[in-house]
User: What shape does this take?
Amino acid sequence: MVEIIGAYQVSLITTMGISVILALSLNLITGFCGQISLGHAAFIGAGAYGAAMLTTAGWPFAAGLAAGTAIAAVLGLVVGLASLRVRHDFLAITTMGVGFLFLGVVRQQEWLGGEMGISSIPDAGLGKGGYMVLVVLIAAAIALFSVHLKRSWMGYAFDAIADDEDTARMVGVDAARYKLTAFAMGTGLAGLGGGLYAHDVKFIAPDSFGFIESITILSMVVIGGIGPVWGVIVAAAVLSVLPFWFQFIEEYKLLLYGGLLFAVMRFSPGGLAGFVAGFVAKHKRRRAAAP
Amino acid sequence: MLAFELFMQGLVQGSIYALIAVGLTLVYGLLRILHVAHAGLFTLGGYIGVLVTNATGSLALALLTAMIAVGFVGMALYRFCYQPILDRPPYVALIASIGLFIAMEEIFRIIFGPYGLSYTAPPLQAPIILLGMNLKAAEILTMVGALILIGGLGVLAGRTRTGIAWRATVKDPQMAESFGIDIVKVRYLNFFIGSALAAAAGVMVALLNNLVEPTMGSVPSYKALAIIVLGGLGNVRGTLIASLALGVIESFGTIYLGFLLDRDAIAFAFLILVLMIRPQGLVGRSNG
Assistant: This one.
């Protein structure tokens, strides 16, 4: 694989795939179920640290990855319980707080490597090409799962809660159960993405999972349109590799993310998907109007 | 004695928090927007303070310039960034604001460089002995300045016609409008005052650290959000109490909780704890 498309492209596609996984995982919580989270990096970090600690201690790669996923999901379930207590703006700030708390605690723990983090994380043993294929397959599986979920009964329930939680409750949707499910699934998948990230770059430190990382993932979801699976995939793929394609962007990466986040919210809150849908609708109308 | 010193340090830090958080809670009270970019204005205030002081040698002039200039920038932010998206769901303004804040930090970095600026001749560094404690003059200025500014705000809100119109608008915008209050003017005033207070905080932090840097707003920004939630969003008195309390708790926490979590995480541990017990915040009414 590496011989065919080149080592640079392989690492690029791996990065892209991991970003897609992370963006789709947040999309389950924020896009599908309407629960805003500003602390997603905490769960990515929990999965990354969990997996990396275990494989460094000698566990097989798959087992470490699974354990990291489970750790993140359990943490997510706890934060999901918070979403039952507080809503909207309060939830946004609570999840942001969870992000800072995660960072603050990890930094002070010697057994987690403190500020220095964990280095020389063992290789997954699949080779660069094999690892890329694994990441892409997992990303594709999560995308298919998302599409399926959207059309399932649970997807409709998520929709109802995102739209208007009180009304959803009134018509008998068990909002608490669905919200917890969304949090557990989304954060578990974030943990999976985190584990994949840790074994891709082989080095993690608290700063890899800070507020900016949460916002980066959120900006992918927002620019994708908050919900539409293909929009989020395109946004995640493009935003994650832009800095590689245009070296000069690396310097201005955060300016670009911040500016885009603001511009999308200010001018086209439907994001990429909303923009395209609007464009298509306009085009159709024009065609219909033409003689 | 150590306890007293920690307490005073906490109050100095708490005064800074108060100056930042009051503007934030005012914006929330009026518009229901979590104005994250507020801390960008705090940073801007710090930069203007250092630049004007270095150019003219007068700290008072610098403070005044920073407050007025940043006040107008705050008004412009409202007009061009928030006003057009007021009728959208609340997360729209929140995310837009976060994007704006990150972009502002980057712009500071690009214009002024990543390493920040310092005073060429840092003012008010003389030590003052107060109650047997060694304090810097700048620390005293911070506390007294915060007291004067927030006291002035209290007088404005409580004793003047403008203040009454302001409070009426916060309480019930529709009713206020039907009584002839120009609520758009009130919003501009709100942004001007809140932003000017943040700028003053920026100048004071620049004095305390003798440094302004592009990211100096990050931690205060998110912490101020925690503070206004603790104070019961939109509640000025609650915000003041929460600011000072957090300053003092952090000051002690650094000594006694340092092994468990770092200083900046204490605010959020406290926040999450309080929200789980009292979802409407530490002080005051429920409006979430």
Notes: The longest strand of chain B covers residues 127-130.
